[in-house]
Write a structure and sequence with these properties.
Largest sheet: 6 strands, parallel
Low-confidence stretches: 2-13
Bound molecules: 3-methylbut-3-enyl trihydrogen diphosphate, magnesium ion
Mean pLDDT: 95
Number of strands: 6
Structural class: alpha/beta
Helix content: 40-55%
Strand content: 5-15%
Shape: globular
Strand order of the largest sheet: 3-4-2-1-5-6
Length: 254
């Protein structure tokens, strides 16, 4: 990366998102278009991940969350699943030191218990190594599902209620939110889905409540600086009202 975050490429106008969440979609179609096996699309997708980490770092965007493997992706052919998991392992192995040197904190969210002990150990080591880093919070969602996340949060609270440690009446939105696996992150300001589909596919269901949604047709391996700039320009042009009127929001600015 080699540049100071925030010091460069300040967006010309408007607001900059603090947290971007991306559904990286279209790897398979990118490969098919070129007569390549789907795995090539996934490999190229990893290159885009690296570019986007740099792009966020250079723009001083402190939180980037990427959907890499959904709880539903186990339904794919087993050879593809195996390959995706191997790619996860080898990318962790090759990239963690670089992330650490660039003061990136890595978090992996999702139900990690379904992965091998070896991969779980690798994830734990990477998280531990980068724990104190502050310049960019990179979160990768693997075996993640928004419905699973809300369910596991409810289960935690129910356990405490059953043990009489928690009064059910004391369960608030804030308390439930504190049990989601994104509790250390602010809610996403900007959601991007590449690959042309306009759906959430069980990503951050709770967390996207007030997020600005941006969909583009570009396949993830082709998503580049120009594409992220378009998404940021779209975001900068939005007025976030959080239920208020546009006039109220305008007045608050002054
Ligand atoms: C996204 O690309 C990567 C994962 C879901 C792991 P896809 O593999 O879904 O690509 P398409 O949608 O088939 O093109
Ligand atoms: C969503 O993409 C999951 C990830 C990008 C990891 P999919 O390609 O799995 O989504 P659907 O099945 O088309 O909705
Ligand atoms: Mg897809």
């Amino acid at each position: 990366m080699g540049v100071q975050p925030a010091a460069v490429m300040e967006l010309a106008t408007g607001n900059k998102p603090r947290h971007i969440a991306i559904i990286m979609d279209g790897n398979g179609r990118w490969a098919r278009q070129r007569g390549l096996p789907r795995v090539e699309g996934h490999r190229r997708g990893v290159e885009t991940v690296k570019n986007m980490v740099s792009a966020c770092y250079q723009r001083g965007i402190p939180y980037l969350t990427l959907f890499a493997f959904s709880s539903e992706n186990w339904n794919r052919p087993s050879a593809e699943v195996k390959l995706l998991i191997e790619l996860m392992y080898s990318t962790l192995e090759s990239e963690v030191r670089y992330l650490h040197e660039n003061r990136v904190r890595l978090r992996m969210i999702g139900d990690l218990s379904r992965f091998s002990k070896k991969l779980q150990r690798k994830i734990a080591e990477a998280q531990e190594l980068t724990r104190a880093n502050r310049d960019l919070n990179l979160t990768i969602a693997v075996n993640y599902g928004g419905q699973w996340d809300i369910t596991q949060a409810c289960r935690m609270l129910a356990r405490r209620a059953a043990a009489a440690e928690l009064d059910p009446e004391a369960i608030t939105q804030t308390l439930l939110e504190s049990q989601l696996c994104t509790s250390a992150l602010p809610p996403p300001d900007l959601f991007i889905r590449t690959g042309g589909e306009q759906r959430i596919s069980n990503f951050l269901l709770w967390q996207l409540a007030y997020t600005e949604l941006y969909f583009c047709d570009t396949y993830w391996p082709d998503f580049d600086e120009a594409c992220i700039n378009d998404a940021l320009a779209h975001y900068a042009g939005r007025q976030r009202r959080f239920g208020k009127t546009g006039e109220q929001v305008d007045e608050e600015k002054f």
